[in-house]
Amino acid sequence: MTDAERTEGEAAAWVVRLHSDQRTQSDQEAFRAWLDADAANVEAFSAHVAIWDSVAAWGDDREAREILQFSPLWSGFGRRVAKWGVSIGGVAVAAALVVFVSGGLRLSQHYATVPGELRTISLSDGSTLLMNTDSKVSARFSQGERRVYLERGQAYFRVAKDSHRPFRVFVGHDEVRAVGTAFEVRRMGDRAEVVLEEGRLAIFRGVEQAADKPLLPTRAASTPPKPLLYMTAGEALDLADRTPPVVQPANVVQSSAWRYGRVVLDETRLEDAAAELNRYGGPRIVLSDPRLADIRISGVFHTGRPRDVVSDVVRAFPIKVVKDDGEQIVLAMVPSASPADAPAVVKNSR
């Protein structure tokens, strides 16, 4: 047996022992000494706690039950153990799950959309998730909490109420926490935008490391982190690194338009409008002249039809299309013209 295998076995045994109603004070002291002996012990125990915490959620998840009972990667004995573990959750059986889980079970669910795609996900707790174009989300639910990681893009959450399991959305170093509410989060590199439609949210900062690992027993009870602020319905928040966040009134009509295949532009710079429309796939709008960037446009447009915007802009401004090859629509200023030759804002509604 290798050192790594020995550590894994000890970690699994400690998870079972510490969850038993027969654990003693001596067990607690021995466990703490084991944790302090090697950083690898902490890592292995953390991984096995995550597995244990996920067992309770499998019984209510149809897909998980099918994987556990019918996956060809599991031996006949492994399938029987998994089936029993989901139904009764016994200590010995859960220990077997810890050992057999390497046979192919996914503890986290991963979802992604391609440019131009909207996707609705029904989560195992009754919550729903609507993902916008080019987005990536992973979810891991346990008996004590519901974790969702927004890795990129934008998502709208309608959260099922569960006072015993907070719904935690992690965006980089920030956390948006809810119990039962409806809100959306958009990630843009180091920034995130939050819009709350219903209910209440708590915002935490600097929690990325805590999100990645389950809590471990410590010698002294730690104080739970306090929210940076709370949001109420109809509010929006811009989260950026090293910038104190400020809550502002939300334009829910504008922020929710993507859920209906639309984008609302309100005196938006043409450069920003092009970037927004380019998220949804199709030919990309390219500005070949920096003078075009500050032209402002307003209107309601289909997210998958960039030529609609181009058509309106070309009609209203001294701008022409110099290239349209199906992949790019390149715009340029008409020679001897400037943005001052046209209205400051072009408005349209489709």
UniProtKB/TrEMBL annotation:
TM regions (residue ranges): 84-105
Pfam families in alphabetical order: DUF4880, FecR
Residue ranges of every copy of the FecR protein domain listed in the record: 111-200
Family annotation (Gene3D superfamilies): 2.60.120.1440, 3.55.50.30
The entry's keywords: Membrane, Transmembrane, Transmembrane helix
GO molecular function: sigma factor antagonist activity
All copies of domain FecR N-terminal, residue ranges: 10-46
Protein name, per record: Fe2+-dicitrate sensor, membrane component
Species assigned in the record: Caulobacter vibrioides OR37
Taxonomic lineage from the root: Bacteria, Pseudomonadati, Pseudomonadota, Alphaproteobacteria, Caulobacterales
